[in-house]
Amino acid sequence: MDASFDLDAEPAGSETSVPVHATARDVRGPSALLALDDEAPPRLIVDPPLAEPLKAGRVFIQYRTENLRVLPVFGAGALDVSPRVGHLHITVDDATWHFVDASGETVVLVGLAPGPHRVLFELADPAHRVIDSQTVRFIIPE
Q: Which helix (H) or strand (E) holds 65?
């Protein structure tokens, strides 16, 4: 059976911000199957908490990375992996400890008291060295 499709057709019900003619590489970046000779520096982008859950005291924070794939891969041996891999260290309200996120998915925090809070996101390499960081500040309503 031959499969055929129209690359120029707009998908039914499509309401994305991705241009119709964007390639997979345009959207997803370079293939993870080939080593990159000259990788650009990694970058961390963190959004403010989603407004609706925050009104109910739940904190949902989305993030993304550029030039680094968030994966549960750790140790000195992973430092030479290409494309580059890493994870996040997340610290809430200047705690003396942090937790690790290696999912690349929305970070969810619940149970915080009403009032001001801050969450430090640190992009780390597989050996836990911090590459980039951002702090998100927000207020949980009474």
A: strand 63-66
* Domain range annotation of the chain: 32-140
CA distance 57 to 114: 7
Q: Which helix (H) or strand (E) segment is 140 a member of?
A: strand 130-140
Instruction: Return the number of other C-beta atoms located less than 10 Å from residue 80's C-beta.
Output: 9
Confidence at residue 18, expressed as pLDDT on a 0 to 100 scale = 62
Beta bridge partners of 139: 116
pLDDT given at position 16: 54
From CA 121, how far away is CA 124, in angstroms rounded? 10
Cβ(70)–Cβ(42) below 8 Å? no
Q: Report strand pairing: 99-101 vs 107-109.
A: unpaired
Q: Is the pLDDT of residue 5 over 60?
A: no
User: What is the value of pTM for the model shown?
Assistant: 0.77
pLDDT digits (tens, 9 = 90+) for 97-117: 999 999 999 999 999 999 999
Q: How many CB atoms lie within 10 A of CB 27?
A: 10
CATH 2.60.40.10 fits 32-140, yes or no: yes
Burial classification of residue 138, based on how many CB atoms lie within 10 Å of its CB (0-12 exposed, 13-18 middle, 19 or more buried): middle
